[in-house]
Amino acid sequence: MWIYEKKLECPVNITRPDPKLAQLIITQYGGPDGELGASLRYLSQRFNMVTPQARATLNDIGTEELAHLEIVGTIVRQLTRDVGEKEIRASGFEPFYVEHGLGVYPQNAGGGAFTAAAMQSKGDPIADLYENMAAEQKARVTYEYLLDMIDNPEVAKPIRFLREREIVHFQRFGEALNYVKEYQEKNHIFFGMTV
Amino acid sequence: MDREQLLSEIMTKDFVLTDLRLFLNTHPCEKEALTLFNDTAKEILNLKTQFESTYGPFDGRSPVSPARFDWIDDPWPWQNTKNNAGGKN
Fold first, then answer.
1. What tens digit of pLDDT does each residue of A40-52 get?
2. In Å, how far from its chain's centre is CA A62?
3. What is the number of CB-based contacts under 8 A between chain A and chain B?
4. d(CA A103, CA A168)
């Protein structure tokens, strides 16, 4: 289970709203390479993981992704706080506004709702870990594309933090994968089949 | 330390733990990391006790004021304290 702590993993203090940017960053909340999908992916896969190292890695990275979901939600919230009708129109935020007002909704940058179709829980530790390494790389690239669109250092700072975590997670999944491969070799499991 | 400083100190130390936890998951016998993990965990415990005695409950199992359930008090982490003089969230 989880216990809530009244803090963010990384501080977010945005003083200047920018709804247009919020509409892009929202993809890391509910888009295909976003934090919700990442968390759901790892926390679901962990039930079927083998070796203590891999189980712990999926459990703890899945948990950290929930903290990242909160950071992205906070960025979106602070970028849209108290914006008026004029600003909504001028920034192209109208499509989001008519659906969700100033609410934070899990969707991609194009407006498509969150879908679990972008992730897998394959019941095979090797397949899952390779998917996770790819997922971390895709999320890193999305953060880099976002950074290309961000001028405000108050926004760039937490986005850079999130990007760096993707790199650390990729590394840890790679190490977990080595443990799983070693385990399977020892138990004569060849790509899921006992030989 | 004021609320913001103390919270920032906890956040920093807690991040050390988060990162070390992931490292130790795949390097469970690394002595240096184990020592740092335990030392940091102890420091956080002290900081949290210090925080809670002045600013109220920090997490869902912290003791609360006997007078009222101060868990519900602002600010929540998503509220920008630097840009908000007690206004709406």
1. 999 999 999 999 9
2. 9
3. 81
4. 31
